[in-house]
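In this supplementary section we document a worked example of the pipeline. Step one takes a protein sequence of length 182 as its only input; no multiple sequence alignment statistics are reported here. Step two produces a three-dimensional model, which step three serialises into structure tokens for compact storage. The input and output of this example are shown verbatim.
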Amino acid sequence: MYIHLVYLIPFLVILKFLDAYLTIWVYHTYKQFGRKYLMLESFEANPNWKKDVEHGFKSWKHFTFLFALVILLSYLFSVEPYGFAYEFFSGFSLFLYLAINFEHLSHLREMAQMPGRVSGKLFYSLDYYFSTASHNYVKYSAMLFFAWIATQSAFICGAVFGPLFIAALIKVRWDAYSSDKK
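The serialised model returned by step three reads:
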């Protein structure tokens, strides 16, 4: 699958802005409606971003990773357009941000369905969040893995690793959280 750099970079930027917007939307939806049904140990699992989520992402530090990906993709495209490395990191980048946005949309859907399905309050610990989130990202990767087997595409191979990268980051955060609790 070939995606030209000129189309890929704006799409990645849009997905990152959508990620920031959906994070804030989910947070405000939780504050407005979700608190009736959910007690969260913490809304944002990453302590580095907790204040930013609560105050509306006034910092550009969240775009540092995206900026690094854009530089890497630009370099790879200039060296060998549509080569394996460019295709791999294109799929990785695109599906990394798609998976994150799918998770945000899933949280919005869950909160919208709670009024008719939940009575009382549910307590979501960070352990539960880390467990379910990492499993969801692994499921995305597993589905993409079968597409990669069928296509043998470098783009789809990279797509498999995008959500796995997020799952690995969650695992690292989970391990740090678990060791801090002890």
